[in-house]
Amino acid sequence: MLELVRQYFVSAIVVASALAPTAAGISLIYGVMRYPNFALGEFMTVGGYLALVLSAALGMPLPLAALAAALAAGVISLAVDQTAFRAVRRAGILPPILLSLGLMLILQNVVRIIWGNGSWQLNVPLARPYQLWGFSVTPYQLISIVVSAVTLGAAYVVLMRTRFGKAVRALADNPDLALVSGVEPEPVYAGVTFMAGFLAAIGGVLLGLQSVLTPLMGWDSLLPAFAIAILGGLGNVMGAGIAALIIGLAGEYSLLFVQSSYKSAVAFVVLALILIVRPTGILGERP
Amino acid sequence: MLDFLIAIVTFTAIYAMVSLGLNLQWGQAGLVNLGQVAFFATGAYTAAILTRANVPFLWAILAAAALAAVLGALVALITPHLREDYLAIVTLGFAELVRLILLNEKEIGNGPNGINAIPQPLHGVAGANYPLLFALLTLAALAAVFLFNERLRGAPLGRLLRAIRDDESVVASIGKSVLAFKVEAFSLGAAMAGAAGAFYAAYLTFIAPEMFTASVSIYVLVAVLIGKRGSNFGTLLGAVFVSILLEGSDFIKDYIPFGTGVQIAAFRIIVMGAVLMLVVLARYRTMVES
Amino acid sequence: MTTELLNVSMPELETRHLVKRFGGMQAISDCNLRIAGGSITGLIGPNGAGKSTVFSMISGFLRSDGGEIWFKGRRIDGLPAHRVARLGIIRTFQTPHELRELSVLENLMVVPRSQFGESLAGLLPFGGRRVRKEEHEIEERAIAVLRTVGLEHHAQHRAADLSGGQKKLLEIARCMMCNPKVALLDEPTAGVNPSLINDLMEVIRVLHNGGVTVVIIEHNMNVVMRLCGHVVVLDRGAVMCEGTPDSIQRDERVLAAYLGSPP
Q1: I want to staple B238 with a disulfide (CB 3.0 to 4.6 A). Which of A198, A259, B91, B227 is the partner?
Q2: Chain B: nearest CA to A161, how far in angstroms?
Q3: DSSP C103
Q4: 3-state secondary structure A114-173
Q5: Rounded distance between C-alpha atoms, residue C28 and residue C41, angstroms
Q6: What is the number of other CB atoms lying within 10 angstroms of the CB of residue A260?
């Protein structure tokens, strides 16, 4: 039992590492552009499969393939934003939500048309788990944790140390004030959508590294990622990192009580409770 | 060809009932619901289980609608103060929760294997013409749902629901319980989806959790959007479009020389997603909330 | 004899030590209002004094963080907004909340409570006649109210298409349609064309003459002086002073706080 509890702790961190970047992307778009983007889960899927193609078919080393896939996902995200979402900027919250649902269907099924319904494996050699402070961890789990932390850290630095980041935070905190202080919103929106696509794709590659790629991997991660984004505070990247651990732990330790296929349901229940009990969010963002 | 037409009509009628339910909730009362499939599934499973236990179809429909309505009331009761976007997330997640329960709780409907050999009403009566008879039954149910919605739209009740959609604080300020009417609208819309589920189960004679994914909720959303939110007739047309796109391609796939079944299925969902995006881009001006 | 005396001295509507905080800021602190039945009371004070906040708390739209609200000997704080409205306390909104997609007439026709036509039974086939009769009665009343406020020619227009001033009138019309005991009018003349203000004051008098207690938040001192029998000055979330319009106008503290310039 104790062994199980310890091992769940490891898998919670591993799960969190794949979900956190996606949740950070959701959080950024939600916090700055004020809508929940349901298509971001699919950017995980797209990122994972692009990395597969670039590494397996074109022979790129996986780290390079992952980076290229994430850049490509960012560009796709940006392109869709400029061609579709940009038109509905001032139309309230419903139109972008509906657009993101349409995009979700499209991306998920483009993947299905190209790669089918089955699962794919990123081509990495099998590796024996390490024993680390009494925990059993595979090298890929370690890589996943490190890459996730580095990615989030980089995003955090971008948000805290650059002019772009300052504008992002200004728009997230108080859009009216930001606009009258001369922040140009469109370049910020563009940057945020690119970042969100990029982050989600990294999450997708990490998820692929941990298990397999399937067309539904993004959808299955969507509710947990939303739970994390909202728990962590919208627009708050580090909050997403911490919330990912909480949701990850909740999901893993729930296995002591329910079947594993309920994991994403556990995240949803946490999410629904947050929304219903504290409709303004947890870490005190705007109402 | 005639078989094909009858099948399309049946599917259309079923989708139209689900869509009209959403139109009542969202089009009239302004309640965002991205989880309509949950009520559809509830109805389908309820009816399947009951008719297999030899309960007459009519009672099974009523039970399906009633259980869906109760579930709908529950959702409306726990989410009364949620903003539109949070309601979108919660309803989407709720439907996923229902699907996971159907998948995992094998006592309900055999988990992923689903329920088969669902009895069909009046089966012995029409012989070879049975599909036509079933289509007519479904159309009759659709007509009832449609007339009910139209009557509601023209009634003071419809006016009040539209008042809630416009500004619920006004409705509270004149002394009316917004919550009570929201619960009513939400459970009525859910009941329509539940009844449609009963027909779906009987028509296919087989149901499984994989048939009740979030995509279905989005399809009926597309139907309501195409028809201009709020219009029952428009929703009907939207449902015709959606079911031709979804089920029509099933019947022509034998004649298409390229693509696997999975690819054709995926392609039509891509078309659905594109239609959704295009309709939103064409209509977003009429959706602006105050 | 004693009960009569008690009735005279007991306010119809009262707030006791009302408190409201937004974040760390104390918006309302120890606010004690006493509104006499049948009066027209003006609630004035500088921007941010908390006037609208007090209205929102009385009408149940906002929860107080402390204190009590009493109406006719009954404690009403904590009641949801629609329950407060059912007791006869009807508020209007500072920025008009018209039902945009409904016609002006429909904006009033939604008001009467327990309409048979708003029940599911009203949808049944045999309910039609009763609903039509009820609708006819409600429509007549709504038209009469629209006539009082001078909006009868706009009855069939979309409410969203009304001008700002007309929307203000619609707010008051909706309040009238509710048959209130207490009307809480939040800046009814703000943004209204000056030529319409006299009409608006007349409408408020009609409301008052119908036996309604009126509490009115108002910035236009001219309106306050001519309409109100009693004026309460709110400053930084508490009652600074109160009295007749004349005495208030002469009060130096009021001049200082309200006009923002030392006398």
Answers
A1: B227
A2: 31
A3: B
A4: HHCCCCECCCCCCCCCEEECCEEECHHHHHHHHHHHHHHHHHHHHHHHCHHHHHHHHHHH
A5: 19
A6: 10
- Global ipTM: 0.91
Residue of B nearest to A100 (CA): B277
Q: Is C91 on the interface with B (CB under 8 A)?
A: yes
Please report residues of C whose CB lies closer than 8 A to that of B184.
120
- Residues of B in Cβ contact (< 8 Å) with A99: 276-277, 280-281
| Any B CB within 8 A of C103 CB | no
Residue of C nearest to B185 (CA): C120
Chains that touch A (3 or more CB pairs under 8 A): B
pLDDT digits (tens, 9 = 90+) for B246-287: 887 766 666 666 677 788 888 889 999 999 999 999 988 776
C82–B166 CB contact, under 8 Å: no
Name which of A95, A117, A269 is nearest B262 (Cβ-Cβ).
Answer: A117
Q: What number of C-beta contacts closer than 8 Å exist between B and C?
A: 97
Q: Which long-range contacts (CB under 8 A, 24 or more apart) does A127-135 make?
A: A134/A6, A135/A6, A135/A7, A135/A9, A135/A10
Spatial CA neighbour of A174 closest among A3, A31, A280: A31
Map tokens 């590494």 to a residue. A55
- The string over A152-191, giving b where at least 16 C-beta atoms fall within 10 Å of a residue's C-beta and e elsewhere, is beebbeebeeeeebebbbbbbeebeebeeeebebeebbeb
CB B285 within 8 A of CB A121: no
* Nearest-by-Cβ selection for B159 from C80, C97, C109: C109
CB atoms C117 and B156 under 8 Å: yes
CATH of domain A2-119+136-277: 1.10.3470
Distance in angstroms (rounded) separating the CA atoms of residues A188 and B26: 33
Pair of tokens at residue C36: 């006499």
Please name every residue paired with B117 in a beta bridge, in sequence order, or none if there are none: none
Angstrom distance (rounded) from CA C38 to CA A74: 66
Separation CA B197–CA B141 (nearest Å): 12
B180/chain C closest Cα distance in angstroms: 11
- Residues 6 or more apart whose CB falls under 8 angstroms from that of B277 comprise A84, A98, A99, A102, A103, A106
Q: List per-residue pLDDT tens for chain C, 263 residues long.
A: 444 444 456 789 999 999 998 877 888 998 999 999 999 999 998 888 889 999 999 999 999 999 999 999 999 999 999 999 999 999 999 999 999 999 999 999 999 998 999 999 888 888 888 999 999 999 999 999 999 999 999 999 999 999 888 999 999 999 999 999 999 999 998 888 888 888 889 999 999 999 999 999 998 888 998 999 999 999 888 898 889 988 888 888 877 776 554 43
Residue B103 at interface with chain A, using a CB cutoff of 8 Å: yes
Q: Does B270 touch chain A (CB under 8 A)?
A: yes
